[in-house]
Design goal:
It is found in: Cell membrane; Membrane. With 290 residues, this protein is mainly α. It has one domain: ABC transporter involved in vitamin B12 uptake, BtuC (Orthogonal Bundle), CATH 1.10.3470.10. It contains 13 helices and no strands. The relative contact order is 0.16.
Length: 290
Amino acid sequence: MAMLSHPFIRTALVAGTSVAALSGIIGWFVVLRGQVFAGDALSHVAYTGALAALASGVDLRLGLFVATAGAGVALGLLGGRASADDVVIGTGLAWVLGLGVLFLTLFTKRAATAHGNANVAVLFGSIFGINPTAAVTAALLAAGLIVAVLVIARPLLFTSIDPAVAAAGGVPVRLLGPLFLALVGATTAETSQIVGALLGLGLLAAPAAAAVRLTDRPWPGIALSALLAVAAVWAGITLAYAVPTFPPSFTIMAVAAAEYLLAVALGQCRTAPRKPDPGRAVGRATASRR
């Protein structure tokens, strides 16, 4: 394929595939546990952390990971339960957005001309602008995070379904909650480099929500969620290459949303009651008279 002859496309696929697989696996648990709002809050934290790093003159990725992982742990601890509640998340989100405004102001005053595109890249991502070294780093980090979530997958599934019974069975529910949200935060930092802080939630939630609608079996659902997320990235990159006016972040999110809508339609078709066949009913009535 001619598209694969371009180095920037290959680099984008390396980074995008690994991060998408991570997002699909983590996202399945996010949807199952009803913590999509927490994922949204952490995506805003990613923006604030990135701006804090830019304003301080340090590596943007350092700000992303420190802010999101730390915020994930804080949300888990402040929630006081296995998962943070909406009040805690909403309060934290408002405070973090205020910090984002502060760091944006500092960054603009410090380096408005030298790094004028950095703010846009943080918001909307730049998968075609990732260099090979950053792509390999993203792939290695994603692989490590995938291993981490798979290690805790079984007890995490138990606590997600019935936290009270899991706690009675000796599962460390209070520890798993903050740990999982820290992994969600790190995943959000990874996806922010691909599709941006504002759109990262879409890659985290849409393929996973589609998988949950298509199957209620945990392990096939996790695998399907990862597959759908990877498919969204590959299809999105292909569309952005075919239509250069479309930014890749838009096409990736469009495909992910289409996957969810298709899953909803398929689910309704499977659960819709079958309409009676008038011809068959007449035939049965005629046979009964005989």
